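Recap from last week: sequence in, structure out.
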Amino acid sequence: MTDSKKKNLHVKTGDRVVVTSGKDKGKMGSVRTIKTDKDKVVVEGVNMITKAVRPNPAAGIQGGLTKFEAPIESSKVMVVCPACEKPTRIKHEIKDGKKVRVCKKCGEQIDV
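Predicted structure tokens:
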């Protein structure tokens, strides 16, 4: 893929998602950031890893162990519909001249 093309993912920042596979299967959280170049998303409270940090007195950083969310593949998450509260695939429809995301299960609009 060239750098000029922009990938579109099925999730957006702020969406509530559920993890469908892996060690965190079944966990829910909201999408914090999206890394489109690698097709990965960072979900709040999911895929927590621990990293050792060296102290740096000049920068005021205290050393120790820190926990943070690591990115996971975007294909391993499903959007949770705000209307029916179920994980669902999305489809795109044009309403009032705008392209919106719609729940496949209940037909409600996901984008507000």
